[in-house]
Specification:
- The chain has 171 residues and is of the alpha/beta class.
- The protein has one domain: Double Stranded RNA Binding Domain, CATH 3.30.160.
- 35% of the residues lie in helices and 32% in strands.
- The protein has helices spanning 2-19, 45-53, 134-166; strands spanning 37-41, 61-63, 72-88, 94-108, 114-128.
- It has a five-stranded mixed sheet, with helices on one face.
- A hairpin with a 5-residue loop joins strand 3 and strand 4.
- Helix 2 (45-53) crosses helix 3 (134-166).
- It starts with a helix and ends in a 5-residue tail after the last helix.
Length: 171
């Protein structure tokens, strides 16, 4: 009796979520990319994240050859990371850091005209630092940078998509 009631409740909740228009991230009607073929230029972590994510989008093909025609281009021009001390303890040791990440990019339409020229995405995260465990803290800092690279790649795609679909007013 209770198993049947649980199943009915689950089916009811799922149907309510589907009826309200709920979609998982990347699964909705506007989840695709404005250009069906894309070339990513750059060697840093953001370019690598873009190369991993773009083929997963519906109806998007990642091109590995920049000389092909009718291909949109995303150029990751620069990436930089900066660490700053936020707090220190009574012994003068750092106990909290702020890591900032800046990615500069440009995007071009398939006809070669610029969608966005030299735009920046800036992200920052703060984390506690334990001076007694520096190896683990270095690993945490590296994970934060990797996460910020992934977030920056998503922000870049959203910006390009917004300008491509809504024009320059979206900037």
């Amino acid at each position: 009796m209770t198993a049947t009631l649980r199943r009915l409740t689950a089916i009811l909740l799922i149907s309510l979520l589907a009826a309200c228009g709920f979609h998982l991230r990347g699964q909705g009607p506007n989840s695709g990319f404005a250009y069906p073929t894309v070339y990513v230029e750059g060697k840093g972590g953001v370019a690598q994240q873009l190369r991993l994510y773009l083929p997963l989008l519906p109806n998007v093909k990642l091109i590995k050859d920049a000389t092909q025609k009718d291909v949109a281009k995303i150029a990751i021009l620069n990436e930089s990371t900066n660490n700053a001390v936020l707090t220190i303890n009574s012994a003068g040791q750092a106990t909290e850091y702020k890591t900032s990440f800046v990615a500069t990019f440009s995007a071009f339409r398939p006809d070669g005209t610029a969608i966005m020229e030299s735009q920046q995405v800036t992200l920052s995260r703060s984390y506690s630092y334990d001076p007694n465990n520096p190896i683990a803290m270095t690993g945490e800092s590296n994970r934060l940078v990797k996460d910020m690279q992934q977030d920056a790649s998503q922000l870049i795609l959203r910006r390009i998509n917004a300008v491509a679909t809504h024009g320059d007013n979206a900037q």
